Amino acid sequence: MTSQLRLSAAFAGATLLLIGCATTEDHDLSERRARSVYPDPHPKSAEPLALQEGAAELTEEVPELDGVASYVEFGLANSATLRGSFEQWRAMNERIEQTSTLPDPRFTYGEFIEQVQTRTGPQERRFGISQAFPWPGQLDAQARVAAREADAAWQRVETQRLEVVSKIEVAYYDYAFLARELQTTDELLNLLRGLEPVVQGRVKSGGGQADLLKLQVEIGRLEDDLASIERRRPASWGRLADALNLSLWSEPPALPELLAPELGPLDSSALYRTALERNPRLRELIEEIEANREQELLVDFKRKPNLAVGFEYIQTGDALNPSTSGSGTDPYLLSLSFSLPVWRSSYDAAEREARHRVRSANERLAAEESRLRSSLEGETFRVEDAERQIRLYRESLVPRASETLDLTLVAYRAGDASILDLIDAERVLLEFELSAWRACRDALQGISRLNALIGGAQ
Length: 458
Hints:
By secondary structure, the chain is of the alpha+beta class. The chain has helices spanning about 1-20, 30-35, 70-80, 80-95, 95-100, 140-205, 210-230, 235-245, 270-280, 280-300, 345-415, 420-455, and strands at about 105-120, 120-135, 305-315, 330-340.
């Protein structure tokens, strides 16, 4: 009983000592990041629709959404690609604690097949526990590498989030533009339909039928245009549904209203400076560079020995002569061991690998900065050109075309203009109106792409 008590006390003390060496990681930062993307970052997993029974009969009802902001909010919460990047980051984040914790202790047990007789009695079995300790600073170095890699994964989440937002907004503005096409075409169609009785009255008064036929042909053309626009609606909604990650849906929702943007001057140099600071793709590459630099420093620890501390207890029976001094005494053993870092060539190769990875990431960073500058210049030009067109059409061409149509209509009623003059004026107004709204759409889409490039709306 005495030896069992000593055994229990020894192992309890050793276990407490080793447990006290474990390290913990503060997860406050990761939780704040997680909740910045999802209010509930720990959702219950859902089975994909394609794997559910009767998936072909399922539909996904779109909630009541009002405005681009509500579409973006819904799409971010529903995006499978964003959730995938997010979960990948969470997985990478969990590696930090794994790399900063001591290796598991080792427990050994040995049973003597043939008891070893000693002066104090036969040795029957032995118990041991040991703990390896990396070189001081190695765990911290490993944790820094894992933290840098997790930060790079977080920047990929930010990149994915911006891409999802931009994809939704671009598809949304395309879908909203359909409403303006339908509205503008329908208004001019109704205007011509209202003119048809006037032309029919002239025919009844003895006028020729050529004007009536020309008017009816133009009405038919506009009706066909209107039908074509309406038939484009499911395809346009399909692109928006894809951006919202809606695999199945019933009917397209109501067309949103496209509004003219409020634009100001754009400074491509200022946008580039902002992008250098905030673009998550650049930040990801920077974190990758730092992670490989930390990895290069970590290789030095492989050249240093690791220490292992062990404790053994040997259970010993009573001596053949019970009067022998120390009969049945159980010996204890404290051991120290060191690893032998002899494979120098492999350590050198690991160091060269890390150095090459740093150079690779530096080159990719330079290429990404060049691509970013080019993309910013291109999108800035498109937004500014769309803004120029908006001003041109809204302030000059559309008002003049509308006035021309009104004057031509009055002149036609008075017999001073032909039906072809009226149709030409109507076609010009339709073209200018649609061009103005198309420029509005292009400007809004360009702003969305610019925001994705510079790391979010300013």
